[in-house]
Amino acid sequence: MELKELVKQYKNWTLSRHQSDQDRDRLLGESLAQFAKVCNSLKDYGEILMALYLCVRYFGSQKGERVFTSLLVKNNSFKEVEPTWYLLFTQSNIFATLCRMQTSVERSQFNVIVLKKALERDFEFMIDELLDGQIPVSNKMIELLLAGERERSLINLLTQTKESKNTRPKYHNMSEKSKYQGIAAIIKKQVTFNLDKPRDLEDLYGMKELHFLNIIGIAMEIDIKTSQVQSLITLMKREIEAGNVPDGAVQLNYESLFRLFARLRKIKLIRFLFNQKFDFEFSVHVFIAALEEDAFDIAVLLHKEFVQLMRENSLKDNRSIVSNCI
Fold first, then answer.
1. What distance in Å separates the CA atoms of residue 291 and residue 170, rounded to the nearest whole number?
2. Mean pLDDT of 167-196
3. pLDDT of amino acid 317
4. Who contacts 8 (Cβ-Cβ below 8 Å, separation ≥6)?
5. Angle CA(95)–CA(180)–CA(85) in degrees, nearest 5?
6. What angle do CA 286, 291, 294 make, to 5 degrees?
7. Which residue of 30, 189, 240, 261 lies most exposed, with the fewest beta carbons within 10 A?
């Protein structure tokens, strides 16, 4: 696809630190002119959709908007192709909306639509574009990757190697967007007061860094195969052992995983955790964690299997067990 080469060329230009502002403007103009020429020759709707995304990401100017708009007009905003695409692209000022805020409902929908089509058509370079860490990743995007059995792609979102230029993306839940906006409206004065603290705003809008538990939690929600979850944990463990996840102990927290699996009664996955020798071993605290999650049936199973180990509980541990049972 010619689009792939254009993007590669554009990135090489923008990464160069030896260019004056005048040179950058000239190269950007040349790149946009080439981009527009390629776009005019596109006939395939999938490739046109990819071009629209690249236009939003790299050419958020008036000239870029003209290319974006001409593509939509030429293809009747995909009216005969896909109703969801048509509804999105016929909204007022859609180009400005998509460029302005990366976690807007419209931009989130756009990213999902593009990723879905890229996965269907095996447009690997576009999948890389969406997953390079610069674009916030939503729960819907993770669902698509899980459905496509892209465990490696998901783990790559969390790794940080010397060879890779990718960074860990921010994560937001599309279904919670309206809830956060409502909270922001209620405490508007407080948000304004804390504008000098970006992390407060990130937390408010769900814009924390992606965490491994986010991925596993979504996997549990859509009920993917147990083997896929096991594969995710295994791959994450290998990357941590290779030194590719600086905060490995935080990302792969076995107690947090156990609490999640116990709460959801995922017996096979709990047994899988216990098979991770030296990483996750039974202790009375695991038994107490099951009680704290109201997973009493899981606690009973643990008691039967590890009753010998529980004969030497401390008085403090026994009191904790009793308080959780009453």
1. 33
2. 59
3. 66
4. none
5. 30
6. 135
7. 189
Is residue 286 within 8 A of residue 270, CB to CB? The reply is: no
Nearest residue to 174 (alpha-carbon basis) of 133, 205, 210, 139: 139
**Cα dihedral 59, 139, 109, 199 sign:** negative
Distances (CA, A) of 264 to 260, 286, 296, 314: 6, 15, 12, 29
Q: Which segment of 21-35, 277-291, 298-312 scores lowest on mean pLDDT?
A: 21-35
Q: How far apart, in whole angstroms, are the C-alpha atoms of residue 275 and residue 292? A: 23
DSSP 8-state secondary structure symbol assigned to residue 133? S
Which domain-ending residue is among 86, 107, 130?
Answer: 130
User: Which two tokens mark 59?
Assistant: 């050419």
Is 21 domain-assigned? yes
For residue range 211-235, what is the model confidence (pLDDT) as tens digits? 999 999 999 999 899 999 999 999 9
Token readout for 193 is 């007061």
**How many CB atoms neighbour CB 316 within 10 A?**
9
Is 101 inside a domain boundary?
A: yes
Closest by CA to 144, choosing from 205, 86, 210, 218, is 218
139's CB contacts (< 8 A; 6+ apart) are 171, 172, 173, 174, 175, 214, 218
End position of a domain, from candidates 130, 149, 182: 130
SS3 assignment, position 138 = strand
The 10s digit of each residue's pLDDT in 88-112 is 999 999 999 999 888 889 999 999 9
Neighbours of 308 (CB within 10 A): 7
DSSP class of residue 210 equals P
Q: Global pTM?
A: 0.82
- Residue 325 domain boundaries: 253-326
Tell me the C-alpha distance between 82 and 44, whole Å. Answer: 14
The number of distinct structural domains making up the chain is 2
Asked if residue 210 belongs to a domain, the reply is no
Q: What distance in Å separates the CA atoms of residue 157 and residue 278, rounded to the nearest whole number?
A: 26
Q: Per residue in 187-205, pLDDT tens? A: 444 433 333 344 444 444 5
